[in-house]
Write a structure and sequence with these properties.
The chain is of the alpha/beta class and 342 residues long. Helix content is 42%, strand content 18%. The chain is built from 15 helices and 13 strands. Helix 7 links the parallel strand 5 (131-137) and strand 6. The longest helix has 16 residues, at 253-268. The structure holds pyridoxal-5'-phosphate.
Amino acid sequence: MIIDLRSDTVTKPTKEMLEVMLEARVGDDVYKEDETTNELETKIAKMFGKTHGLFFPSGTMANQTAIKLHTNPGDQVICDKYAHIFNYEGGGASFNSGVSCKLINGNRGMFTAEQVIEAINPPDFYHSPLTTLVEIENTTNKGGGACWDFTEILKIREVCDTNNLGLHLDGARLWNALVEKNETPKDFGNVFDTISVCLSKGLGCPVGSVLIGDEKFMKNAIRIRKILGGGMRQIGYLAAAGIYALDNNFTRLIKDHNKAKEIASVLTNCSYINNVELVETNIVIFSLAKEIDETKFIELLERKSIRISNLGSGKMRIVTHLDYTDKMHDKLLETLKTLKVG
Ligand SMILES: *Cc1c(COP(=O)(O)O)cnc(C)c1O
């Protein structure tokens, strides 16, 4: 039994999910003739109260398309220093859209409306890049699964309206925030111009993200997806997994959060731990006591069939997910409590 807690992307489709996939009605999605993909896109768009949804092979491509929709080359995007679009999309913002990022020094990947105001370049000052987009991540990945305060998001929306800026949400793990904070997709649909959501993380699908927005932004999205090489054919098999996951794997995310919180509380009492960051959803970020070597610590756990991630700069990460069973959880907690380190 390998306990893989490196990421919530390591899940494999269940038999039930695979059966639904096998039964999917499919067609050529480049001609928009794939019924199941059309159904998934409409379903998610409706959940968020938007007119359009578009299926993508990855969250990265969905975010990159959103950036392109909102900007022109030379523009500047405001985001947190921890943002996935800045740190983990291969430099795509500059590669695909020719934009730069103005990084906000936020708190666990989140920032305030006040900080956005400070980050906007005056539009008539032609020496600096034109600010055109604000990007928010919820939950924050590098910020340890933190959930935004919704009232701050509303204030940022006002700042965007006043300054004529687009507002994009990287909602790769928005599902986790929704169940944790008792919020609805429509709350977010009302505020953001575009939203990307992942099906392949907590929801347990093998592939897929969906970008959502209204006609005004989304009318060009399919062209940009084509340019990025994301036009696909009989993808109803994948979309069927998404429909299944939304109906069956969404509300259960709370179980992952409870397990993550239990792991955090055990870690807090371990002598080899320096600090455990606040856990709100399914991500636990912690650091080791000074004298302990991180690589050796990971190897030690590996020998006990436990896999976790080293994020660098002294941070370790555990992510709970659908395939992390109660039995694995018991074994992990016991192992952490009795681990002889150093
Ligand atoms: C995983 C993730 C994405 C998308 O990543 P892909 O691997 O391209 O699907 C985007 N944003 C955040 C915050 C993520 O955690």
